[in-house]
Each structure stands twice: as structure tokens, then as C-alpha cells.
Design a protein that fits this description.
The protein is mainly alpha-helical and about 425 residues long. It has helices at about 1-20, 25-30, 35-60, 65-85, 90-100, 105-115, 120-140, 140-150, 155-175, 190-195, 200-210, 210-240, 245-275, 280-300, 305-315, 320-330, 335-365, 380-400, and strands spanning about 370, 375.
Amino acid sequence: MWGLVAVLYAIGFFQRMVPAVIADNLMRDFQLDGALLGNLAAAYFYAYALMQIPTGLLVDQVGARKVASVACMTTAAGILLFSFGSSLWFVYAGRFLVGASVAVAWVTCMQLAGHWFPANRFASVTGVALVCGNFGGIMAGVPLAHAVELFGWRWATGASGFLMLLLGAATWTALRDDPKAYGYRSHAHAVLLDQGSLPAGKALWSVVRRRDTWLLFFAGGLATSPLLVFAGLWGVPYLTQVYQVKTSEAALITSTMLISLAVSAVIFGIISDRLGLRKMPYLVGTLLTAFQWAIFLFVKLSYALLFPLLAGIGLTTGCMIIGFATAREVNHPGAAGTVGGVVNMSVLGIAALMQPMVGKILDSHWEGALVNGVRIYSEAAYHAAFIWLFASTALAFFMVLLTRETHCRSAEN
């Protein structure tokens, strides 16, 4: 049950990372500068972020099955529009539609995890969800780069649209919101089983009035968006232009960051569940992430040392997974989908703001160099833009520092 939605999340993550590999193709075919490319990539993030709260409310009120099934079909339409659109407006519209529809995947994954798995496995299972998502991101690295070389960027990216049609049919046919539908015992919280989900308005008010919700909202977004911005768009141009590596090689490095993120999310989730602690492992992870971004920015590294450093950033960024379990525990069980949507909104919302901002800083430092219609930025320009990656993770540390410890127990216990 949970795995069907995890596949949707994986394809959504694939689409999230696509612009990093085809950045040169998009800049050349549509005559884009850095700011426009950043906005095109960020259209996915804007839509994704805007849909998080509505998604949370819908999942609580309607159920995961209906929401996920419709999302699969809508995602297919968006992918095909982006991949085969004849003008920039079609490409923008497709990108926005994909972001809006795959936005349901993470929240529905968490909702299903709350019903199909014991509470003391929630952080671990959420970590595995991130593994599935990052597998999709990995496929948008070297495999996509080779597919683009063989088939062109439109067919290479559009193939997943046809896969989404099949997934939508399978989700509608097989997925059920709760184990009871198949005669098994539900793992949902007793309050939720007895009283059901909170009404939409009450659920949203219950979530937004809690101080810890907002601390976790900003902590998750500030900790994760630097990696998404770098691996999802600007990392490949930076590595190809500054370190003179091939696109496929650069994609391998950014894919390694995603692999590290996926692995560490599971590890952090297991550690947190086993220790019965949320705050301490989250704090350690954000501190180490900020430290590594500082090294990346302020220490001149050889290519040989850059690779393990970026992998290390992925390993420590995985601590963000703990924030979703914490947010669920500090809020009412009847608002589980809503709180998941609220907290997840910041992860891509802040990345959506940061992507074009990095592009604008790069454009302001551009010295006029062009190669085959693609803007070439200097190392100094990239470092001026990337200062925000360090600042973001440093702020995340202080947000986590202000949260309270739940000891892996719901506030309603």
C-alpha cells in the first residue's frame, strides 16, 4: 500500500532534479538566462509548496487513495506538457502542474505510514520514503544524462509521463487507506480511530497555533533547501564550468549527494527511534551540515576532495527527516496529514525562493562569457551566490535548538 505512493514520490523527485541535467538544453532551446532558468526550475517548487496545506487537509478528509490516484494522472499530463511543449509557456505550465500534483506524494506517504506501521517505526519508515524519492533523483542524474544523449531531452524526460498513467491505475485498484480494509489491524493512533480526523478548519488551526510547528517548519526548509538548490539545478553547471568536468560526471556527483541523503535519512530515523530522542540527533545533523557548507565556501578544495565533501553534506542533511516525526508528535493525531503538509511546505518553498535568487546573483556577476548560447559564470560568481547555502543551514541549527523534545511520544498520550 505504502509502496505505491512511494513510487509516485520517486517519480516526483525525478522530475524535481531534471533541470540540473538538461539546463544547457533549456537555456539553448528557449534562450534563457540564469534568472529565467532558475524561475523555470522553481515553478515546480512554487506549485509544490502551495499545494502542501491543501494536500494535508485533503488527505485528512478524503483519504490517501483518492488523492494519490488523481495526482498520478495529473502528473502524467504535466510531464507530457513540459517535455513536448512547443513554447516556453507550455514548458512553464507543465512544470507547475507536475509540482502541484506530485506534492501529494510525501504527505500521503506519511499518512499511510501512520496507519500501516507502528508509531515507533514512523521516523524509520519516513526515512525509507526518502530513499525511494532519492532513487528517483539518482535516475535523474547519470541515467538521464545518457538518455538525453541517446534520445534527446524531450523523449528522455517524457517517458516517465506514460509510466505515471500505469501507476495511477494501479493505485486506484490496489491502495487502501487503512489495514482494516483488508482485514488487518490498524496502527493508527487510538484518538484517531475513536474520533476520526479533525474537521479541516479545526485541524489547520490546531497545527498553525503551535510554536513548535513553526520552528520545525523553518528548520526543515532551511536545512534541506541548500542541497536541493545545489543538486537540483546549480551544482551541474558549477562543476562543469569551474572544475571542467563532463555533464555526466557532474551529474554523478550531485546524484551521490542524493544517495547520501537517502541513506542518512534512514540512519537518522532509526537512531532517533532507537534512542527515543528527536532533538539531539537533529541538532547534531544540522550543525555538521552547516560546518561542511562553510568548508565548501571558504576553503579552496581540489576536485578529489570536493567529491567526499559533497557526499558528506548529503549524509548530514538527512537529519531533516526527524523533523516530520517531531511535528507529528507535537500535534493532534487527527491533524496528521495537515501538519505533514505544513512542515513539508517549507522544504521546497524555501528552495523555490532560493533557486532564482542564486540565478540573479550569478547574473549580477556575469562577465559576458557565452559558449553555444549558454552563460558561463566565474568561480567567484558561484561562491557569491552559494553563500546563502551556508547561511540557510546555520539558521536551521538555531531553529532546532529552540524546539522541545518529544521523546518519540504523541502530545495526546
